[in-house]
Task: structure prediction
Amino acid sequence: MSASWLHRWPVLSLAVVVWITSLPGHAASQQNNPIIVAAQPVGQLAFFPAYRASANVEALNESRISAEISAVIRDIPVKVGDVVKQGAVLVQLDCRNYELALQREQAQAKSIAAKQDLAEYQLLRAQKLATQQAVAEELLKQRETDLAVLQADARSQKAAIGQAQRNVDKCVLRAPYDAIVLERMGQVGELASPVAPLLRILDAQQREVSAKLQEQQVDSIRDAKQITYEVRGITYPLQLRAITANIDSRERTQEVRLVFSHEKPLPGSAGDIVWHSQHANLPAELLVRRKGQLGVFLVKKVDERNVAVFHVLKGAEEGRPAAIDLPGDALVVTQGRFRLQAGDAVSLQ
Result:
């Protein structure tokens, strides 16, 4: 055998191997020796992920109560820690100056009313004389003008009385809502002014839960049917009220606001919100990548044979459980998946 023949021997050997494997008998032998895999129905593998995030209970209102008028403080009947109902008296001011002002405006209104009665009588008298042509037209016009001026004065005085009454009402400061008294800044005998707060109160009824969530958490809580707030071993049902329409540029989170269905923990409580996704997920370890896409291998019957079919999971991420839309009886390959390619014949162990 010549040296050139020996040199070409590996190439000829490879060609012979390729020719042999292309024969129908070899293909049949590959079908007769499928890849052995293990598989389970989706219904046995799927789960609904639970999510948890830190959250705080926040009162909707925290107010600093100030006087709207300047007056000496006569009484502050509430103390720090008191829980008061809406409309309860928080501060009483010395109201004598404003009560005197109200009486003065009321007396002025009576004076205008008396003058108005006289003007109406004089106008009526002048109108009668005018029908007899016994009074000058100028005098009739004067009587009409006098009455119109007094009517305008009466309306102005009515507004003045209303303002004076409002000032008297402002002598008593009342709770704008059911509240908890947090701080008392004013003292009896001091002069209250509109710029100085006298009390700090917190809304005792209207409370919400605030939490900052990552993007994937926001997507899952949007469709969650059951959300709870857990603090000190106690669970409170929640309802999602709003997802803020902005993302925190530093933390890359979105704030969600939730309201309590029934009982509420104390404002300022720190706990966790817990919810379950409504979308079935497969464990992250079952995912494989083929042609740059993540998915799972399914076992399907094709011409009486079990064949591996690659099912792409849209939106799947490496190392994270993936949401699925597969029927519960679909067979997912759990062992032997890394050796598979789409279309491979498989045998279930």
